[in-house]
Design goal:
Layout (H helix, E strand, L loop, with lengths): L2 H38 L4 H25 L4 H22 L1 H7 L6 E6 L2 E5 L4 H8 L6 H21 L7 H17 L13 H18 L7 H17 L9 H23 L37 H11 L12 H4 L41 H10 L8 H9 L2 H10 L7 H12 L8 H6 L8 H10 L27 E2 L21 H4 L8 E2 L21 H9 L24 H12 L11
Antiparallel strand pairs: 1-2, 3-4
Helix pairs in contact: 2-3, 2-6, 3-4, 3-5, 3-7, 3-8, 5-6, 7-8, 7-10, 8-9, 9-10, 11-16, 13-16, 18-21
Length: 608
């Protein structure tokens, strides 16, 4: 090989090395550029939420598995699993209401009655049931494992099927506000921690979770001071959620913390420029849980319900008081629902029926009507009144004729329901829309918790705290309506079997002969079940219970303090009221009654 060939080979080799080096540099540069791009690419809040959700649900499942593996640490692992369930709660309770309801249902037999051919009886399961099985003197390991498996299976199903790609800002804001409302209205009452009464710690965990999720939306804030205000508020709230369950000041918690958070929430809506596609039970601009502007009344009405106008209400009010709509021209809706008696009649049993007349105040904010829930709407309830032989003793066609024969009605209906003939649907809708305005929220208690005045006595405030704490009243009579419609979704109005006696007798008590819900579908497990009524205006609406058996609030409180029917010797297999005595002192009973009296609304004739 000559010199020229050697030089040529050397040059070729160097060129190859140079090209290889340049190629390697290009690859490294491209990778570095790609890595840098990946590092700076923003991660969507959807992805962040999915990651956090999967982490929490995996840990909840893991601690359930540990219950089966280590029998010596059952209680500890239950608490840990429940902790992560509570972290999931704000998101899960919004994205999957049905499965959340399964996991957090009370230890009460569930009966679903669609019609005579579709009645389902379901044994309960979930964290509340498991809590009651674990924290007893003698554990039934087989039963515990059964519920552990049911809960774990449901959580795995949820994990597999829950995605976050569709989540928008308004979804997050809704779930955030629902969590705030749930804590105030059920969380701090002991509603879902029946044995441990771990409600304050549970609520703190939920706020920690809200804090975590809020950080995922930090970049959505245009005003950094608003984000800072949220951080500080959540921290103050978590710091306040401590101490003894019975001693916790729920009144000031809602007044100072919950309502402030609703204001911050509305500011956040404005800051993010969010538009909601529709309204839920609580209005999108609500700043209080105890206001006539809190609830979206059409949420509780038929899906076709139109906006309620003043002309519609005026027409409905006239029909409400018109005795000419009944066959004998002597009965109107106001016969049993008199304004001066908070829209009741003051009788033990109303004329022509077999039960006590409930108030119509706040009646529109329910999902079912009558004590036995046989009507699913106000318009449907009116049918029963019209057709009852002991009330209007009429029918819908005759009702239409009575209205059509009135010239003034014809003119009003043409204005309110234009371009169609008068019909019973519109007649009933007009009356129902008048009833939908009977939600004053102007009691002494409402004015105080909304900061409009400072006139509640120490006794009244203590009474509210007892009602929502030690006395457990609010686990059935949920604030702010204090009826059985369950917040914050308000999809169900609950029934209870509390064992109401036939007579006011604590020695030889026997249960009321009224079979309640059983009369509708003849389901044995529903004997003596009645819808939970509101205690708002209770001082004005006696006598009490479906049969008017008690004439004073003191008698009512004595019944509950003894443990309901079970406490006076009435044994019912499906009693939903815990049979244990409440052990309230005389002073505590007086305080609760003082609080209930503070719920009396100012019902002026000019307003209603």
């Amino acid at each position: 090989m000559n010199l020229m060939q050697l030089l040529l080979i050397n040059i070729i080799k160097k060129g190859a090395c140079l090209m290889t080096g340049l190629f390697a540099f290009f690859i490294l540069f491209s990778c570095a550029k790609e890595e840098k791009k990946e590092e700076t690419a923003p991660i969507s809040f959807n992805t962040k939420m999915q990651k956090q959700f999967n982490k929490d649900i995996s840990l909840a499942i893991a601690h359930l598995d540990s219950i089966k593996q280590d029998p010596n640490k059952i209680e500890k692992n239950f608490k840990e699993s429940r902790k992560y369930f509570k972290k999931l709660e704000p998101v899960l309770s919004t994205l999957d209401i049905e499965n959340y309801g399964f996991l957090n249902q009370p230890n009460i037999l569930k009966v679903e009655e669609e019609d005579f051919t579709d009645i389902k009886i379901k044994s309960p399961s979930g964290y509340q049931v498991l809590e009651e099985e674990i924290f007893v003197d003698k554990k039934d390991t087989t039963t515990i494992i059964k519920h552990v498996n049911l809960i774990a299976s449901r959580l795995k199903l949820i994990q597999k099927n829950t995605g976050f790609d569709h989540i928008k800002q308004y979804h997050f804001l809704w779930l955030f506000r629902k969590a705030i409302a749930r804590i105030a209205l059920t969380g701090i009452t002991g509603f879902d921690s029946p044995v441990l009464e771990n409600s304050l710690e549970d609520s703190k965990i939920v706020y920690q979770s809200l804090h975590t999720y809020l950080y995922m939306f930090k970049d959505e804030f245009k005003d950094p001071n608003l984000f800072k205000a949220w951080k500080e508020e959540i921290q103050v709230t978590m710091d306040s959620l401590q101490g003894d369950f019975n001693e916790f000041d729920r009144y000031h918690f809602i007044k100072n913390r919950t309502h402030k958070q609703l204001t911050l929430w509305n500011q956040t809506v404005s800051d993010w420029k969010v538009e909601f596609p529709f309204e839920l039970a609580i209005k999108n601009d609500a700043t209080s849980l105890f206001s006539s502007d809190t609830f979206n009344v059409t949420y509780f009405a038929d899906r076709n319900q139109k906006a309620i106008t003043q002309d519609m209400v005026s027409l409905g009010k006239k029909l409400f008081y018109d005795t000419n709509l009944s066959t004998d021209k002597k009965v109107s809706c106001a016969t049993c629902h008199q304004q001066e008696k908070a829209f009741t009649d003051g009788l033990k049993i109303s004329k022509g029926v077999t039960r006590n007349s409930p108030t119509l105040l706040y009646a529109a904010l329910q999902q079912d009507f009558f004590y036995d829930k046989r009507a699913g709407g106000l318009e449907g309830q009116i049918i029963s009144v019209v057709e009852n032989a002991n009330e209007f003793h009429s029918d819908l066609k005759t009702l239409e004729k009575a209205v059509i024969s009135n010239k003034e009605y014809v003119e009003q209906f043409a204005k309110v329901y234009p371009n169609r003939e008068i019909n019973n649907n519109d007649i009933r809708n007009a009356i129902a829309n008048y009833i939908r305005t009977l939600i004053p929220f102007n009691s002494k208690f409402d004015r105080n918790i909304n900061g409009l005045e400072n006139t509640l006595s120490t006794s009244e405030i203590n009474g509210y705290n007892l009602f929502n704490g030690k006395a457990k009243c609010a686990t059935c009579h949920f604030a702010p309506l204090f009826n059985g419609t369950v917040p914050p979704d308000y999809k169900e109005s609950e029934m209870e079997l509390i064992g109401v006696p036939k007579h006011n007798d604590t020695i030889n008590a026997t249960i009321s002969e009224d079979l309640g819900r059983y009369a509708i579908y003849k389901t044995p497990e529903r004997k003596h079940f009645f819808k939970t009524s509101t205690v708002r205006n209770a001082a004005l609406t006696g006598p009490y219970m479906h049969n008017g058996v008690y004439t004073t609030l003191e008698e009512v409180m004595d019944f509950y303090n003894r443990g309901g029917g079970a406490g006076i010797g009435i044994e019912q297999e499906y009693q939903t009221l815990p049979p244990d005595p409440l052990n309230l002192t005389n002073q505590e009973i007086d305080d609760i009654i003082a609080f209930m009296k503070s719920l009396n609304d100012n019902i002026s004739e000019s307003e209603y």
